[in-house]
Each structure stands twice: as C-alpha cells, then as structure tokens.
Amino acid sequence: GVKLLLHGLCSNTTVKSLDLKGNNLRTVGAEALGTLLRQNKSIRSLVLEWNSLGMWEEGFSFFCQALGANNCLQRLDLRNNQINHQGAGELAMALKQNSSLQELDLRWNNIGLLGGRALLNCLHSNKTLKRLELAGNNVPSDILKAVEQATDHNQDRQTILSETQNRAYILSKEVLSLKDEKTKQFLDLMDTIDKQREEIARSGRMSAARVSQLQEALDEQHSIMNSLKAKLQMTEAALALSEQKVHSLGELLNATKQEQTSMAERHFLDLQQQKQEGADREGKLLHDLSAASEKNLLLRSQVDELEKKCKVQQDQLFQVKQDLTNTTAELKLRVVQAEEHLETEKRRFKQSLEDMESLRLKEVDHMTQHMEASERSMQDRIQRLEAIRIALEEELSQVKAAALTERGQAEEELIKVRNQARLEEQQRLEHLEEKLRLMTESRDEAQNCCLKQKQMVTEAQAKANQLSLHADGLRRRIEELQQDLNSKEEEKVTEVNKVKVELQEQIGHLQAERTAQEGLREKIAALERQLKVLSSNHREALLDKEGEISMLLEKLRMKEADISRMREEEAQRASFLQNAIMAYVQGSPLGTHGSRK
C-alpha cells in the first residue's frame, strides 16, 4: 500500500508535507521513498518516526542516496528507526551532497561514537543544515557540543547571506532612485535652457520687427521727400514761366517758403524722436543681453562648485577604502602569525611525545617488577587521575567554547563596523546630491564620521589583541596540563593510550577551527568584492555626472557664441541704419537748406 501511495505522489505538485509515522516500512517502502525523493519536487517536510528503517541496510542506503540527490526537502524526522553507525555514515555522505535540508531529527537511535563523528565531519562541507538532534544515541557530549556549534555556525551564515542580499537589493533601489533624480535634474536644466532659447528667439523676433518698422518709416520719409522734390521742380518751372509776375507773386513765394520750413522742422523732430526710440530699444536689448550673460556666469560658477564637490567626495571615498584595506591586511597578518605559532607548538608536542615513548620503553622493564606491589596504590591513583582528567576535559571544552564565542563576537563587530561604514557613505552621497548648498556642514559631519570609524577600528584591533593574549594564556595552561599528564603517564602504560586518543580528538577540533577560519576568510573576501563592485558603480555614476556637466558646458558655450553673434549683427544693423540716415539727411536739399540757415 505504501508503494502505491508513494508512486502516486511522485507526480504530485500540491502536497507539501507527508507524515508516515508508525507504518512498519521495510525495504520496499524505503526504496519507494527513495524514488519519491528523486522525482518529487514539492514535498518540504517528511516524518518517518517509528518505522525501523535502519534494520534494512540496502533499502536505507538507497533512501540516503536519493536524499543526497534531492534539492527540495527541508525537514526530515527519523526518530526511533534503529539507525546504527553505518546508517549514520550513509546519512553523512548524503548530507555532503544535499543543499536544501535544514532540520534533521535522529533522536532515540543507535548511532554511537562513530556515527556522531561521521555526522560531525559532514557538517564541515554542508552549509545549509540549521538543526540536528542527536539525543538518546550514546553520542559523547563533546561531539554533541561540536555539532551544535556547527549548526549554529550554518544558521549564522545563512542569516548573514540573507542580510547581505537584502542590503544589496536596498542599495540597488537607492542607486536607481539616485539615477532617476539625476535624470529629473538634467531634464529640468534642459527645460530651462530651452526656455532661455525661446526667450532669445522672441527677443530676436521683436528686434527684427522693430527694425522692419524703422525701415518702413524710412521708406515713408523717402516717398515724402520725393513728393517734395517734385513740388519744388513744379514751382521752379512755374517761376521760370512767371518771371514777369515775380513782384506780384513774391509774397506768395515767401508764404510757401515758410510752410516748407515748418514742414521740414516737423520732419526733423519726427526723425529725432524715432532715433531716440531706436536708441532706447537698443539699450533694452543690451540690458537683456547683459542679464543673460550674468545668468550664464552664475551657471558656470555652480558647475565649478559641483565639480569641486565631486572631487572632494572621490578623495573621501579613496581614504575610506585605504583604511579598510589596511585593517584587512593587519588582520590577515595576525591570522598568519597565529597559524605559525600553532605549527611550532605542534612540532614541540610531537617531539615531546617521541621522547616520552623512548622513556616509556626504558621504564617498562622496571615497572613490571614493581607492578604486583603497587597494584592497590595504582588503582586509587587511577581513580583520582580519571576524576582530574574529566575536570580538565570540562575546562578545555569551556575554554574552547569561550574562545569560539569571543571570536564570533569579534567577527560580528567587524562586520557591523563595515556595514556602518557602507551605510554612512551612502547617506553622505545622498545628502551631497540633495543639498549642494550645505556642503560645508556635510564635510564636517563626514570628517566626524571618519574619526568615529577609525576609533571603532582601533577598538576592534584592541579587542583582537586581547583575544590573542587570552589565547596565549590558554595555550600556556594547556602546555602545563600536558606536562602534568606526561609526568603521570610515566606511572602507567594504559593511560598513555588514552591520552593519545584525547590528543587526536583535540587535533581534529583544531582542524575544524581552521576550516571555520577559512570560511570566515572567504566571507571577508566576498564582502571585499562587494565593496569593490559598489565603488565601481559609484565611480561610473560620477563619470556619467561629469559627462553630463561637460555637455551642459558645451551647450552654454554655444549659446554664448550665438548671443555674441546676435549682438554683432544688431550692432552692424544699427550702424548701417545710422550711416544711411545721416547720409540721407546730409544729401537731401532740406538738409542743405537747414544747414545754410
């Protein structure tokens, strides 16, 4: 029945959790579960309590292989399944390949010491398992504590990854908002430039209309002067014909002359008024041009200030990056020194073990003679030594736990300091782009923030030094304890073997700590890469700003050139009009007559 049920669930996509507790599954059921895990991609929780799957080795191995190939299951309950150390080894191999399982419950089985070690070793390569329950399996307390530390480390790693992803998403949103604001500012500048162009075109049209009006007025004056010339010619012909009537018509001629002089004076006044109006209009145009040039100068000054502020921001970013690189280099040097010190201590310890083995071989013969007499006393000593050994193991475990917690706190503080530095840099960039007029106050605030960051870095370095000193003290204590153990090992051969086993376990713990340190180094490298990517993005944004500013400067230069050309053309037109009017006035007969009077 289980086989049919699981075969039907292989193609199902809606079931998320499956509970098969207490169904007495055998090899066929275990194989069906393996095929389900290989084919189904929707089940997230699987409960298999009270099924004795560990009794069937072939079926359980097939189930473990399918678990290693699955990438969807997140919770697995295998309580009370009679799993031995071999089954635990197969589970460990599956966990090395699996990348989705987060909770595994193995309580009340027969895993033992070997199975616990296998599961602990698989946690070094598995980075997703957050919870592993091993109660009621005859597993030593040291291994249980190490497993808890590894799962806590995986949980902290996943939380850090989620935080970094969220922060990267927030940063991308902020960058997009900054780009939108920049585009809006650029569009506003283009609108203002277009408005200025329209105003200049309007002023040009007005000036052209005024010039056309002046030309029409001049044409009218030319027509009037031509009519006057025709009248004068008619009068001269009439004078030639009426030479005989000169005396009678003299008074009429005087009257006509007076009328002509009054008309000429009126025309002269009209011309002067038109000249004054043209001069006023030219003054207004010059005033408008001067105002436009002043606006252009103000825009240039603002662009220069923006360029200076961008340079200051680049210098500040470069200083912060240098500080971060210095701190990372110092931390790496300290880690290398600590590793070298550990290697030297290991060599010394190996040499002391070799010396102790040679002494032991020499004293074995001597001890066999006195064994019978000292059996009773040795039993009492053995009990005391075992009590002392247990106490020492507890102290060592406590010291290691304290060292791990202190290291984790130091790493968390470093991460917090870096995150604070990133957030502060982003806030500075936003503040500088939004409020350009208040740059002096923002500079002071940025300097204060840099000082705070340096203080935080110095505090972190001091804490790291304190931790190194504390580790040195612990190492000295360990050396003293090892000397005491060596002095007691000479009394009995059996205790030497026990101490060797304990030392091998300690070496395994140190290797686990090394792997943890390597993982932390990889995290630091990944964070540094993210910082480099963010700095490159900021640099590209600044380069885009500089390109936009250069384009605006070129447009302003083109406008200034157009304005200067308009001025020159208007000045030439005014000079041409003045020359034409003066030439016309000087060449006309009215002008000569007025000059004679």
UniProtKB/TrEMBL annotation:
Its main location: cytoplasm. Keywords: Coiled coil, Cytoplasm, Cytoskeleton. Pfam families: LRR_6. Transmembrane segments: none annotated. Residues 211-245, 289-569 form a coiled coil. It is found in: Cytoplasm, Cytoskeleton, Microtubule organizing center, Centrosome. It comes from the Eukaryota. GO terms for cellular component: centrosome; plasma membrane. This is LRC45 protein.
